[in-house]
Amino acid sequence: MDETAPIRDFEKLLRETIGLSMETVGASVIRHALKRRMTACAISDLHAYWAFVTSDTAERQELVDAVIVPETWFFRDREAFGAMIRHLRENRAGNRPLKLLSLPCSTGEEPYSIAMALLDASFPNGSFQIDAVDVSSRNLVHAERAIYGKNSFRGADIAFRDRYFEAAEGGFRPHDSVRRHVRFRLGNVLAAATPIGQEAYDVAFCRNLLIYFDRETQGAALIRLRQMLADDGLLLVGPAESGLPVLCGFASVRFPRAFAFVKAAAARVKPAEPPVARKPRPAPVKAAPLPQAPKPTPRPFAQKATPTPPSAPPPDRAAASLAGIERAADAGRLTEVSAAAERHIAEFGPSPDAFYWLGLAHDAADAVEDAMRNYRKALYLAPDHQRALAQLRLLQQRQGDHGAAKALADRLDRLAKRSGT
Length: 421
Ligand SMILES: C[S@@+](CC[C@H](N)C(=O)[O-])C[C@H]1O[C@@H](n2cnc3c(N)ncnc32)[C@H](O)[C@@H]1O
What we know:
By secondary structure, the protein is α/β, with parallel strands linked by helices. It has helices spanning about 5-20, 20-25, 25-40, 45-55, 55-65, 80-90, 110-120, 135-145, 160-165, 175-180, 215-230, 265-270, 315-330, 335-350, 350-365, 370-380, 385-400, 400-420; strands spanning about 100, 130-135, 165-170, 170-175, 180-185, 200-205, 230-235, 250-255, 260-265.
C-alpha cells in the first residue's frame, strides 16, 4: 500500500487544524500518533482511518491529543512571572479585576503559576481572572483534575508547593484559593471562534507554541494575540520564540530573560525600559518573595535539557538503546548510528535524542537538508536540546545563514545563563 499520499493528507489536516508545521515536527511524529490512534480504534488500514478521522469530530480531537507536545511545569522560565508582576504594578489603573490569558495552558501548570505569583505579590483574592486555553481536551481534563506529580515540580526552588498545595492521591493539588482564579477552556489560537473573554487581556502568556508553527502561522497567531491584548497589555513568549513578536507589531520590553513584549504603538507612547526607571511606586504591602527571583537562586530549569515526557516509553530499554547509539557515534560508526536511531524511533516513538543522533549522522555524511530537518525535529520535541541547538547553529553558519546562526547562539547563551553553566 502506498502510505505516502495519506500521510500527506494527515499532515495537511493537522497543519490546517492546529497549525503544526511538518518541517519542524517531521513525519515520524505523525506516524507515531497515527499508530497509537489506529491501534486504539482497532483500524489497521490508513485509508480507513482517514475516512474515520475526517468524518468523526471526536476522533479528530483524539488525533490532535496524540500529536501535541504537552511538556510544561510550574514556574517554567520564572523570570516571565516576575516581569508580569512588575508590568502590572506599573500599569494598573483603577480597581477593575485584571484579565490574564494562558494560551496554550497545556495541563495547567502555567496558569496556576500565574495565580500563585499574583497571590505572592499581594494581589488580593478575586482581583484577577485567568483564562487558560488549550487545543488538547486531554490536557484540559488533567488541568481541571489538578493533581501534579514530581515532573511538574522541577528545580530546587519548589517552596511554593508548601504554600499553595495539599497532598492528594497521586501527587499534589493546588489549594482552592489558587484554582478558583483559573477558568479552563478548549480553544485554538488560530480559530477566530475561540470562545475567549470579550474584554482585552492585561497580560497574555503564549509560550512554547509558536515554535511548532511555520512562519505564516506564527504571524496569524501573533495577530490574534494582538487583537486579544489591551493597548498597554504585556505579551510573554518562550525563549525560543523571542525573535518573532517584533516582526508582528510588538516591541520588546527589556525585562531580563522574560521575553516580554508590548504593542509597538504602546511602546512609542511609553518608552520600553525597565519599569523601575519610570515613575517610582510605593512598595507592595508585603514583600513578594517568589516571582521576581533576581538572585542566582536555583532555577526549575537547571536540569538536563531533555526531560522525559510523562508518556515516555519504559526508560530502561529506551535509555539503553540511546546509550548504544551514543557509543556507536563516539566510535565514529555513523551508518550504525543512523540505522539504530531509525530503529529507536520505530520502536519507542519520536525522541529528541534519537533525532539528534540522526541529524549528526546526516551531518557527517554532508546531507545538509536531512541533518537540519532532524535537528529541528529534536528541537520540536525538546526546545532546549543544547546539542541539537549547537549543531544546527554550526550547520547554519557553514551554510552562510549568519542571522539564523546568531539567533541560535543567543538561545544557547540564554540556556547557559539559566542553567548557570
Ligand atoms: C509545550 S506546551 C506549552 C505549555 C505552556 N505554555 C508552557 O510553556 O509550559 C504546548 C501546548 O500547545 C497546545 N497547542 C498546540 N497547538 C495549539 C493551538 N493551535 N491552539 C492552542 N493550543 C495549542 C498543545 O496542546 C500543548 O498543550
